[in-house]
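Marked as duplicate of an earlier ticket. Keeping the data here for the record.
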Amino acid sequence: MAPVITGFDYQRVPVADGVSLNAAVGGAGSPIVLLHGFPQTHLMWRHVAADLAADHTVICPDLRGYGASDKPAETDGSVYAKRTMAADIVTLARELGHDRFALAGHDRGALVAFRAGLDHPRTITHLACLDVLPTLDMWDVMHGTTAAVGFHLYLMAQPPGLPEQLIAASPDAFFGHFLDIWAGDPQAIPADVRAAYLDASRAAVDSIVADYRASAGIDVEHDQADRAADNRLRMPVTVLQQDWGSALGFDAAALWRAWAPDLRHIPVTWGHFMAEEAPADLAKALRDLLTR
């Protein structure tokens, strides 16, 4: 059997026409939604979710296009726009009885969370973004040979066809590469969970590529419009991330502060998969955020 978050109930919740999300729900108390990154599923939150469930209602969905959630065809850029994926999450929470909730996202999920915070400021009470920059800033800092670390961003930004074909030809090698090189502690992702991530990613090549392609197109347009309108995150925001800025030559805290006036920016020495490598520390950071 595929691994699950122990003690959590699983539901399929309709969030848009023809799209339902798979979600694990547990605990009781004020709600917090946890969004996973690439190349993972909701399982990445298994330790943090169990910790937070002691005093919160914790909702861990698979994003549109990932895991056991629906994977609609990419008919246009809006299907996997972070605006669309954020609306999925707001609808999911509302269908589960929560009109307002805290939101934390890692990697791709952090970009969805960021968009939810901008688009739904009266719904998102607190926001945590883990190990990313906002999309617009991410592209701005990627230049020269240092951009080689983000080769997958450029590959999946290409028009439909070639990236899907190349990745589908050897999906375990492609997705497994990131599980290997981004992990500070490889033992934090046990064999059964790693296999679940690879199985899920192998079955979602087209939708994962579509998610990334949107971040080289429509997501940039949405960020540019918000920057021009001086639209910022109005809720307390915590950002935890590795210190990529010192390696790539940018000030991550300053970039985030331009979007989030009420910001706590915390550099960490954990690997990229921080919810699995340092779950107790991360759970504490999220609890600290929720007290603000």
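See parent ticket for discussion. The first strand starts at residue 9 and ends at 16.
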